Amino acid sequence: MRYEDFRREYLADGLTRDMLDDCPIRQFECWLQQAVKSELEDPTAMVLATVDAEGRPWQRIVLMKGVSTEGFVFYTNFGSNKAREIAGESRVSLLFPWNELNRQVIVGGSARQMGRAESARYFLTRPRESQLAAWASQQSRPVSKRAILEAQVQSMREKFGRGEIPVPDFWGGYRVRPERVEFWQGGAHRLHDRFRYTRQRDDSWQIEQLQP
């Protein structure tokens, strides 16, 4: 199999400066709405890249659970690899790979823990089994077999019974405050359209077009 032969032309409409909103968050929300209307699977899925204490990068897919002018939100266990790496280096990168639309959005910024009250509001909307899993899983820690994890979930199920499940003190949200946001639109003959927003000192945004 010749992997170098896997290629296709990107024939979607191009992207020009006058098509962009002056605010990258509003532009992102526009593209996200289009991704949802196109019925993409997991349109809010994003690749989160972090760096560990030895400078080694790592990536994983998480679900974005909110976006505003303040930034992009996701939730995790504070003992997870991603949380421990963010504690040492808050600068992260996000990637939204909307391949079916010939688009991607890349975000660079800093991640900060959200307040407990805000995290609690989201936790209480999660399905009960997801709440139990948050209590049961020592995220990113080794486990010898799945049966142990299932037993931990059952133990939490018995502990809380039918009552309300409280928010774990080791679980919560992070908000990524963007400093750079790049919008990529695939173009014919590999002449892709790329525009990068860079945050200025006064919180305005500079927009520049990049060569593909």
Automatic annotation (TrEMBL):
Alphabetical list of PANTHER family matching this protein: PYRIDOXINE-5'-PHOSPHATE OXIDASE, PYRIDOXINE-5-PHOSPHATE OXIDASE
EC number(s) stated in the UniProt entry for this protein: 1.4.3.5
Domain spans labelled Pyridoxamine 5'-phosphate oxidase N-terminal: 32-158
Organism the protein comes from: Parahaliea mediterranea
Record function comment: Catalyzes the oxidation of either pyridoxine 5'-phosphate (PNP) or pyridoxamine 5'-phosphate (PMP) into pyridoxal 5'-phosphate (PLP).
Pathway annotation from the record: Cofactor metabolism; pyridoxal 5'-phosphate salvage; pyridoxal 5'-phosphate from pyridoxine 5'-phosphate: step 1/1; Cofactor metabolism; pyridoxal 5'-phosphate salvage; pyridoxal 5'-phosphate from pyridoxamine 5'-phosphate: step 1/1
Cofactors demanded by this protein: FMN
This protein's name: Pyridoxine/pyridoxamine 5'-phosphate oxidase
